[in-house]
């Protein structure tokens, strides 16, 4: 597939299935969203990232739009620029955890904190929705 902009329906399906049909950044299940999820190039095409399964992840429009071509962001705690969370090589639970009420995604590491801020993972409306979904037993997505 190389650097093609085209992502076949078969490849889209493979990426979505591998992710359990949930955003690989914020864990929002596609079934709870009103918009269609996107296929994100973890290493953006503009940085030479190939369109192949090992460089793709399933992402909600909010996370994918905020990430865009970013590869690094500033850790709000240390001020250092660090790489963003990579769903292909990083374990979500090592870098993130849920707040007690399941509303907020909390960064546990520099990578997690920088990614949570850069991808705007905790907008108030989404935090409230996560709390409601959690109270109904519909969220978070199981790993």
Please render the helix and strand layout as text:
Layout lengths: L8 H10 L19 E4 L14 E4 L1 H7 L4 E3 L6 E3 L8 H4 E3 L6 E3 L2 H9 L5 H12 L8
Antiparallel strand pairs: 1-2, 3-4, 5-6
The string of secondary-structure elements, in order, is: HEEHEEHEEHH
Number of strands: 6
Number of helices: 5
Describe the largest sheet: 2 strands, antiparallel
The helix fraction, in percent, is 25-40%
Low-confidence stretches: none
Coarse morphology: globular
Strand order of the largest sheet: 1-2
Mean pLDDT, nearest integer? 93
- Strand content bin: 5-15%
Head-to-tail CA distance between termini: 29 Å
- Derived from helix and strand composition plus strand pairing, the structural class reads alpha+beta
Q: Taking Cα atoms only, what radius of gyration do you get, to the nearest Å?
A: 15 Å
Domain count: 1
């Amino acid at each position: 597939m190389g650097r093609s902009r085209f992502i076949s329906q078969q490849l889209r399906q493979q990426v979505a299935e591998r992710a359990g049909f949930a955003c690989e950044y914020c864990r929002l299940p596609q079934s709870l969203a009103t918009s269609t999820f996107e296929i994100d190039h973890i290493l953006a095409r503009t940085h030479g990232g190939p369109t192949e399964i090992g460089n793709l992840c399933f992402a909600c429009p909010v996370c994918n739009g905020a990430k865009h071509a970013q590869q690094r962001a500033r850790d709000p705690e240390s001020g250092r620029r660090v790489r963003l969370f990579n769903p292909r090589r990083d374990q979500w639970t090592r870098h993130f955890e849920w707040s007690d009420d399941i509303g907020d995604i909390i960064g546990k590491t520099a990578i997690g904190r920088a990614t949570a801020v850069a991808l705007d993972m905790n907008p108030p409306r989404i935090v409230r929705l996560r709390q409601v979904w959690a109270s109904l037993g519909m969220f978070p997505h199981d790993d």
